[in-house]
Amino acid sequence: MENKGKYYISTAIAYTSGKPHIGNTYEIVLADAIARFKRLEGYNVYFQTGTDEHGEKIELKAKESGVTPQKFVDNVAIEIKRIWDVMNTSYDKFVRTTDINHEKVVQHIFKKMYENDDIYKGEYKGLYCTPCESFWTESQLIDGKCPDCGRVVEEKSEEAYFFRLSKYQKRLEEYIETHPDFIQPVARKNEMINNFIKPGLQDLCVSRTSFKWGIPVDFDSKHVVYVWLDALTNYITNIGYDIDGGTLEFKDKWPADLHLIGKDIIRFHTIYWPCFLMSLDLPMPKQVFGHPWLIMADGKMSKSKGNVVYADDLVEEFGVDAVRYYFLHEIPFASDGVFTRDLLIERINGDLVNILGNLVNRTVSMSYKYFDGIVENSNVTEEIDNDLINSVISLNNKVTSKMNELKVGEAIEEIFETLRRCNKYIDETMPWSLAKDESKKDRLKTVLYNLLESIRICAVYLQAFMPETAQKIFNQLNTKITNLESTTEFGQLEQSIKLNEQSHLFDRIDTK
């Protein structure tokens, strides 16, 4: 396989205020599917995720729990990492903003920006939302409340350092204009330009004195570095950046190819972060994708509504690949997706049991019933075979182009469309009828070979989305031919091999 070079993908780092629900977990699964597909394509993928661990909210939560902030974030970070592992995600590095190296580099960055006169000392007066750790102007409030979370804001004033965001306004506008794919989807880009950039960028508060749980500003110890300068820089501090130029690893990995984040924090990633990078004289990430939310039928998940669902509970009940399939298939590219148990069960029974499981099961059992599980192709072809083969071979272009556009749900739908076509081919060729006629034995071998090869090719793609299921299929087919190149030409499945005993892929859920 040709090496296509590096591909650096990151998720947002999860805030350590509590256990992540399925809305947070959706992001890591989405990033994992993209990372796995890029590896299949031959990229040298670096996939980074982790936890954001400082701030006033953590300090308050730790106090309520009667533990130190460090102990509090240690416990939550362990839980977040455990859930990412339960979801079978293939990240290369799990970073924490309390890591000593990260803290040290953030202090160097802060000092460098200060020495460059990009950071200055002033006083902050504003309306502050503690849960969101954000200051707002009067005009940004919605019904007098925080526009992000709807909670009450309070007036605060304190001495603070500010980053000269306004200095970079023109450069940022030009960059976004000349790089049309930088912010995706387009609706988010328009929102950033019209609501935040065009009205004029305000300088940004980057230190606080009213709490202690943060990275100390090393030349002014009553200040701690404020959340966004600390959190966003994780994308470079963890790959070897330092203000002296950075390591070979840094030069190899940066810029990131994709920052995958929730649409609620796109402002920080497409306005603050680019301006920080300009200040440090570093290249921009190639793309920021603000994905939609996974919400409940009654709106956003929240503890107060009592509608929070956790991924590990779902996995225990339905299995990891069923949950991954639901997350990846059901959330549209640019609009929110809704989670309901009924729809999850419907998808398992409809798509995973009826379409995929049934196809693999029927094909392997017919191969055993008629040929003792030996794979052979006698090349007794009929016109009807071409339609199936074309459908299978065209998948490469379809899936690859959808994945390049980050339309993961649509890519999966293309694969399942082909699996449906395979099921239809069984009805059209009627292997059970061919088996009754000795003179049709060679035709039957070809029909079963076409089905087995079609299943193999579909399983190659499924490796990105449902890795355990894909592996189970390869095991049944007794094949090692699982690379993406093997999907462009029909007929790669080895002949004269014996299939392994069939294993069950998915159980039907009794809706009662």
Quick description:
The chain has helices at residues 22-41, 56-65, 69-86, 100-115, 169-178, 186-197, 227-232, 234-237, 248-253, 266-279, 311-318, 320-330, 341-371, 383-393, 395-404, 408-429, 431-434, 441-465, 467-477; strands at 6-11, 14-15, 44-52, 93-96, 119-129, 134-136, 154-163, 183-184, 204-205, 207-208, 215-216, 224-225, 258-262, 288-291, 294-296, 337-339.
Descriptive key words:
512 residues; alpha/beta; seven-stranded parallel β-sheet; four-stranded antiparallel β-sheet; 19 helices; 16 strands; 49% helix
Description:
This protein is an alpha/beta fold and 512 residues long. The chain contains 19 helices and 16 strands. Strands 1, 2, 3, 4, 8, 13 and 14 form a seven-stranded parallel sheet that branches. It has a four-stranded antiparallel sheet with strand order 6-5-7-9. It has a three-stranded antiparallel sheet with strand order 10-12-11. Helix 10 links the parallel strand 13 and strand 14. The mean pLDDT is 93.
Q: Extract low-pLDDT stretches.
A: none
Give the overall silhouette.
elongated
How many β-strand runs?
16
What is the terminal separation in angstroms?
A: 49 Å
Q: Biggest sheet: strands, sense, closure?
A: 7 strands, parallel
* Subunit organisation of the chains: single chain
Radius of gyration: 26 Å
> What level of helicity do the residues show?
40-55%
Number of helix segments? 19
Beta content comes to: 5-15%
Mean pLDDT: 93
Structural class by secondary-structure content: alpha/beta
Topology:
Layout: E1 6-11, E2 14-15, H1 22-41, E3 44-52, H2 56-65, H3 69-86, E4 93-96, H4 100-115, E5 119-129, E6 134-136, E7 154-163, H5 169-178, E8 183-184, H6 186-197, E9 204-205, E10 207-208, E11 215-216, E12 224-225, H7 227-232, H8 234-237, H9 248-253, E13 258-262, H10 266-279, E14 288-291, E15 294-296, H11 311-318, H12 320-330, E16 337-339, H13 341-371, H14 383-393, H15 395-404, H16 408-429, H17 431-434, H18 441-465, H19 467-477
Parallel strand pairs: 1-3, 1-13, 2-3, 3-4, 8-14, 13-14, 15-16
Antiparallel strand pairs: 5-6, 5-7, 7-9, 10-12, 11-12
Helix pairs in contact: 1-18, 2-3, 6-10, 11-12, 13-16, 13-18, 14-16, 14-18, 15-16, 16-18, 18-19
